[in-house]
Specification:
The protein is α/β, with parallel strands linked by helices. The protein has a single domain (5-184), classed as Maf protein (Alpha-Beta Complex), CATH 3.90.950.10. It has helices spanning 12-20, 42-60, 87-97, 132-140, 168-172, 176-184; strands spanning 5-7, 25-27, 67-76, 79-80, 101-112, 115-127, 161-165. Strands 1, 2, 3, 4, 5, 6 and 7 form a seven-stranded mixed sheet that branches. Helix 3 crosses helix 4 (132-140).
C-alpha cells in the first residue's frame, strides 16, 4: 500500500486518528521550537507553529505526498498555558481551569510543494470542580506532563469536563472533520470516501 501523506508529529493520538480514518501515512520529524511571542494570540501562535512544523517535515520528505502538521494549545483568558514544567505546575494549571471555561485552539496545515492550506479551530471546554488532591494524584501519574493545559480529555481528566462546545477531536489534538476536508482538497481521501 502506498503512503497518502506524511504526518509531521510525534503525537500518538494524531497518528491513531489518521489510522482510524483509513489514511495511510508515514511519520516525519516536524519538530520546531514552540515559544509564543509576548501578546501573541492563541490562534496566531497555533497557526504559525503548524505551518512551521509542516515546512520542517516537508524539508525532510522523500515522497511526493502532502505533509500534514498540527498544533494544539490550551488558552485561558486569551493566555496560552502550554505544557506543564513539572507535576506542581500541572496541579496549578488544573486549579486555574477549575470551574471555568477555556479554549482549545488547533491549527492544521497541509503542505504539498508550494501549495499550503490551513484551518484554525477553537473549542470551548468547561471544567467543573477540580479537587486539589485528585489533581495531585493525576499529575503524579505523569499523564498530564506532555499535554497542553496539563490534561488529556481522553484520559482521567475527562472526569472534570462538564461541557464541550465544538469539536471534541480538536481537544484531543486533531480536528478530524476539518482535517479530512483539508486533505480532500489535496486529493487525499479517507478510506470510505
Amino acid at each position: 500500500m502506498s503512503v497518502q501523506l506524511y504526518l509531521a508529529s510525534r503525537s500518538p493520538r494524531r497518528a491513531a486518528f489518521l489510522a482510524a480514518l483509513g489514511l495511510r501515512h508515514a511519520l516525519i520529524d516536524g519538530e520546531v521550537p514552540e515559544v509564543p511571542r509576548p501578546g501573541q494570540s492563541p490562534q496566531d501562535y497555533a497557526l504559525e507553529t503548524a505551518i512551521a512544523k509542516a515546512r520542517a517535515g516537508a524539508a525532510k520528505a522523500t515522497l511526493d505526498v502532502p505533509v500534514l502538521a498540527a498544533d494544539t494549545d490550551v488558552a485561558l483568558d486569551g493566555v496560552i498555558l502550554g505544557k506543564p514544567r513539572d507535576a506542581d505546575d500541572a496541579v496549578a494549571m488544573l486549579q486555574r481551569l477549575a470551574d471555568r471555561a477555556h479554549q482549545v485552539v488547533s491549527a492544521v496545515a497541509v503542505l504539498h510543494g508550494a501549495r499550503l492550506e490551513t484551518v484554525v479551530i477553537t473549542t470551548d471546554v468547561l471544567f467543573g470542580t477540580v479537587d486539589e488532591r485528585d489533581a495531585r494524584a493525576y499529575a503524579d501519574s505523569g499523564e498530564p506532563l506532555d499535554k497542553a493545559g496539563a490534561y488529556g480529555i481522553q484520559g482521567y481528566a475527562s472526569r472534570w469536563v462538564r461541557a464541550v462546545h465544538g469539536s471534541y477531536t480538536n481537544v484531543v489534538g486533531l480536528p478530524l472533520y476539518e482535517s479530512a476536508e483539508l486533505l480532500a482538497r489535496f486529493g487525499v481521501h479517507t478510506a470510505h470516501a
